[in-house]
Design goal:
about 50% helix; alpha+beta; single chain; Cytochrome Bc1 Complex, Chain A, domain 1; five-stranded mixed β-sheet; 11 strands; six-stranded mixed β-sheet
Length: about 500
């Protein structure tokens, strides 16, 4: 059985690690290229490895009805290659891709006629589409980008698309940095959307699995849509099915050229590097890419709430509950208080919600709280998610949650609880920044969201300054009925129940 580290020793270890973290800030080298690319570098020579994180300031929040899912779809397409990667002959491939676009447009136009559609013409178009797609496929080199990285020691190649950001990351031997720079700058400048229509079907299947056939996914989608009537945070990142089906390669390519240029990107490189040499390499590769036009901003703001919103989602599954309270963006001074509230309510088995609802009252099988939902760049939600423990109901869990939130308004949080939260923050920060990939991720994230990578280190100090009065004020201001949205997963009702007035 592992020995428990004494509290005083643990505190000393954390303090030592944090002192080291403070020194890390001084080791970050920042440079902005003429085309707008922000480059962040940190030397770490513990191993001959480099971690890179290329973050674009674009996600689902930059979409609108009609093109929802385009950012996530492009993330898939970015792995298909360029004019020189993933293809044997780009010149012969190009006219075939253009013909596929014309055929797809003609098929959609015929489908839009509904019952009046010419089925004979539709069948002929689909047949020709299949033939041309097979011809284009002959020029494709599947997964060539991933194969190149694997052969050169690359690990962890992946990407994620969220509401605010799209992120590409990888770790590899430091002597392969020139190869990475050549490949990734080519991807930024010369991406080709090949296998586009096949990949749309992949994303539609992903949507069916993650949302349409998932009780949790369906609940979250309805919850966000109810919470944001106007702001695009209410749109699903994976996209509405009809939008995905109608989305064209031209629309996706236009979205790529609008948002995926160097001026909208943050590149963090951490590991066994020489910053001066890395800067010269990045200038030679990424620096040659034109800056591109300014990124279109998100203009829509969510109007003030005029009362509680509630939504039910019917699904043949056990009940679930989501409670959300509208709150400001990550740049607001109250953000630090919400970070403390998240830890206070659900971080660990001694957290307030877990202790009261799961251990003591035993009305919930699970309970958690999380901030910055579904994104952080714009005003968002503080969310509490719970699953009732049979035979208890979602209504009982909901009532117990409100009792705990009201308690925050009445009773000051004890100094001991705040000290525990700060220790948790310290431990989490130390673990996150210990690895090169964790450091690169944090630097790129805060630069993209807050415009300042130093937030990686500043937030801890601000968390330490949060007081019991701050917590009571924020709880009283935001945790109100008129400021909340509630979504509940319920089992489908019988017909006779539906017929009742």
């Amino acid at each position: 059985m592992p020995r428990r580290v004494p509290a005083p020793l643990l505190s000393l270890l954390l303090l030592a690690s944090l002192a080291s973290a403070a020194n890390l800030e001084e080791r970050v080298v920042e440079h902005r290229l003429a085309n707008g690319l922000t480059l962040l570098m940190m030397e770490r020579h513990q191993a001959p490895i480099v971690a890179v994180n290329l973050t674009y300031k674009v996600g689902g929040v930059y979409e609108h009805n009609g093109i929802t899912g385009v950012a996530h779809l492009y993330e898939h397409m970015a792995f298909k290659g360029t004019r020189t990667i993933g293809v044997t002959d780009a010149e012969k491939e190009k006219p075939l891709l253009e013909e596929l676009d014309r055929l797809a447009e003609a098929i959609m136009a015929e489908m839009d006629k509904g019952p009046a559609a010419d089925q004979t013409r539709m069948a002929a178009l689909r047949k020709r589409f299949t033939e041309v797609e097979a011809q284009a496929q002959r020029f494709v080199v599947p997964s060539e980008l991933a194969t190149l990285y694997q052969r050169n020691g690359g690990v962890g190649l992946n990407a994620t698309t969220g509401k605010d950001l799209t992120r590409y990351y990888l770790s590899f031997p430091s002597n392969r940095l020139p190869l990475w720079a050549a490949l990734e700058s080519d991807r930024m400048a010369n991406s080709v959307l090949r296998e586009f229509y096949k990949e749309k079907n992949v994303v539609l299947e992903e949507r069916r699995q993650s949302t349409d056939n998932s009780p949790t996914g369906s609940l979250h989608e309805a919850f966000a849509a109810a919470a944001f009537m106007a702001h695009p945070y209410g749109l699903p990142v994976i996209g509405w099915p009809s939008d995905l089906q109608a989305l064209s390669r031209a629309q996706t390519d236009a979205f790529f050229h609008a948002y995926y240029g160097p001026g909208n990107a943050v590149l963090a490189i951490v590991g066994d590097i020489n910053p001066k040499k890395v800067l010269a390499l990045v200038e030679q590769t990424f620096g040659r890419i034109p800056a591109g036009p300014p990124v279109p901003p998100v203009l829509t703001t969510e109007p003030p709430y005029a009362g509680e919103r509630r939504v039910e989602v019917e699904f043949s599954a056990e009940p679930q509950l989501l409670i959300g309270y509208h709150k400001p963006s990550a740049s607001h001074p109250d953000e630090d208080v919400f970070d403390v509230l998240e830890a206070l309510l659900s971080e660990g088995r001694t957290a307030r919600l877990y202790k009261r609802l799961v251990q003591e009252k035993q009305v919930a099988a699970s309970i958690e709280a999380f901030s910055d939902y579904p994104g952080a760049q714009y005003p968002n939600l503080f969310v509490i998610s719970g699953t009732p423990r049979a035979p208890h109901t979602a209504a009982e869990v909901e009532e117990a949650v409100y009792e705990e939130l009201d308690r925050l308004k009445r009773e000051p949080v004890s100094p001991r609880e705040l000290e525990k939260i700060l220790n948790q923050v310290d431990a989490t920060l130390v673990r996150a920044l210990r690895s090169d990939s964790g450091m690169a991720s944090h630097l790129a994230y805060f630069q993209a969201i807050n415009g300042d990578w130093r937030e990686t280190f500043k937030r801890r100090d601000r968390t330490a300054k949060v007081t019991p009065d701050d917590i009571r004020r924020v709880a009283a201001n935001y945790f109100t009925r008129s400021n909340r949205v509630v979504a509940t997963l319920v089992k489908p009702r019988k017909r006779e129940e539906e017929a009742k007035p």
